[in-house]
Amino acid sequence: MSKITMKNLFSGSLRSRQTAVKIISVVLFVSIFAFVFYQGTKTSVVVNADGKEQQISTHAKTVGDLLEDKGIIVTKYDKVTPSLNTEIVDGLTIDWEQAKDITILVDGKESNIWTTESKVKDILEEAKIDVTEHDQVSHALDAEVKSTDKIEVQKAFQLTLVDGNAKKQVWSTSTTVANFLKQQGIQLNEFDRVENKSDTLIKPNDQIKVVRVEKVTDVVEEPVDFAVETRSDSSLLKGKEKVVSEGEKGTVSRTYEIIKKNGKVVDKVLKSEEVVKEPKTKVVAVGSKVVTAAVSRGSQSTSEGKEFYVTATAYTPYCEGCSGTSASGIDLRGSSNLKVIAVDPNLIPLGTKVWVEGYGNAIAGDTGGAIKGNKIDVLVQSKSQAKNWGRKKVRIRILD
């Protein structure tokens, strides 16, 4: 009985092991089949995440499900192609670009933008910031930036640059006057100056004024007036003058320092001078002889002298334009008995005593524009007397 029992127990144990092995085999087969089936039903796609490409097999239904399964959190600023709702199909390529936070400063005013663009020009365009050729940007427009970078933009504005006499409108960004002049390539010479302070910040519509100052030395020869020396001459009637010797101007060389502002002379300083030619003094004889007109007391001369004939007319001391004083200084209106004739001094010198036929003793004390050569004008006191005298040929005698 013991043998039978042991045999039965051994047989039962063997059958149990065989059954277990069969069960395990079945389970393993089912698992392998299920795994193979599961894997075989996956869809193969390519995921390009921020430039890194990966081949993925998935059971995800949509692009969004796939990215979520892979632990990729998509924000509203990220760029996903195709869209998150797109159904997954075999061979699909999914591009995901993660947005980055970029700081932009425009004229010091800060703003932020989430963007998937990498180039400066594209980021600024997305931020709706127009950049002109005159604006100043911290990066090249084609440069790529990271999220840690800041893009700084200084907007250009117009102002007026006056350089000497040249005036023009120019573009600039907010900077100091000194830097602006450097940007414009303005060179200042030794004496040039800028009317604006160099450390002043420029603003739209400002005027920057550069004054061009030039110092030059000029040597010129200039005339020097001659002196006039007067000498008393008793042989000349008082009030008459005669040039004894002509004057002659001299020459002096003068050295000037000339200061010009914007080409215009504003100061001229005499530094030195040298006489090149001395001036020659002019000598003038001034008459001191006084002639006294005599009152006629007869019609005959008391002495004899040279005689000749002249054409005689008459004038009054009250004629139009007459001053009443003769060329030799006689007051023609002082006495009604004055006997004075106007003569050509080249023929009869002033002051000469004469006898005139029909007129009497007189003095040659006046001249006249029309009295030339053998012609005289006798003084009478009224127009009627002058008319009665008329024009006639008379004999004249020189008494002294």
TrEMBL record:
<dbReference type="Pfam" id="PF07501">
    <property type="entry name" value="G5"/>
</dbReference>
<keyword id="KW-0732">Signal</keyword>
<dbReference type="Pfam" id="PF03990">
    <property type="entry name" value="DUF348"/>
</dbReference>
<dbReference type="Pfam" id="PF06725">
    <property type="entry name" value="3D"/>
</dbReference>
<dbReference type="GO" id="GO:0009254">
    <property type="term" value="P:peptidoglycan turnover"/>
</dbReference>
<keyword id="KW-0472">Membrane</keyword>
<protein>
    <submittedName>
        <fullName>DUF348 domain-containing protein</fullName>
    </submittedName>
</protein>
<feature type="transmembrane region" description="Helical">
    <location>
        <begin position="20"/>
        <end position="38"/>
    </location>
</feature>
<dbReference type="InterPro" id="IPR007137">
    <property type="entry name" value="DUF348"/>
</dbReference>
<dbReference type="InterPro" id="IPR036908">
    <property type="entry name" value="RlpA-like_sf"/>
</dbReference>
<keyword id="KW-1133">Transmembrane helix</keyword>
<dbReference type="GO" id="GO:0004553">
    <property type="term" value="F:hydrolase activity, hydrolyzing O-glycosyl compounds"/>
</dbReference>
<feature type="domain" description="G5">
    <location>
        <begin position="210"/>
        <end position="290"/>
    </location>
</feature>
<dbReference type="InterPro" id="IPR011098">
    <property type="entry name" value="G5_dom"/>
</dbReference>
<dbReference type="InterPro" id="IPR051933">
    <property type="entry name" value="Resuscitation_pf_RpfB"/>
</dbReference>
<dbReference type="InterPro" id="IPR010611">
    <property type="entry name" value="3D_dom"/>
</dbReference>
<dbReference type="GO" id="GO:0019867">
    <property type="term" value="C:outer membrane"/>
</dbReference>
<keyword id="KW-0812">Transmembrane</keyword>
